[in-house]
Structure formats: structure tokens, C-alpha cells
Amino acid sequence: MGRVLSFLFGATLGVVAATVVTYLFGPAHNTTFDQHYRSRWNQALADGRQAADEHEAALRQQLAAAKQPRPNNL
Q1: Which pLDDT value is given to residue 7?
Q2: Prediction pTM value
């Protein structure tokens, strides 16, 4: 009985792993297979880079505003 359970567990684990890999590296929703093809993984990386760039720009603006001299109101 132990060998059968081990086999079923291994087969189930293999199916789950294959599903995850297929989901990550498969085509994104509404994607055609042409020169603009992007997998979900590539789309997620591009979205992350864009978010990082936007955050960096906001931080640079905050830094520039903080470096501005403040008027002395004595």
C-alpha cells in the first residue's frame, strides 16, 4: 500500500508543478503568437520594472523638494 500512495503522491505533485510552470511561462490572456508575444512571467517582470521606475521618480521628486531651501520666518 505504501508504494501505491507514494506513486499517487508523486504523480499529484508532478501535475501541480507542471500546472504552475505552464501558468507562469504560458501565454498571457488575449496574447497572439507574433513578435509581441509575452508570457505571464515577462508581463509581470515588465509591470514590476514600470512600478519601480514610477516609484523611483516619485522618490526623486521628494528628494528634490526636500533639498529646496526653506525660508526663514523668524
Answers
A1: 94
A2: 0.51
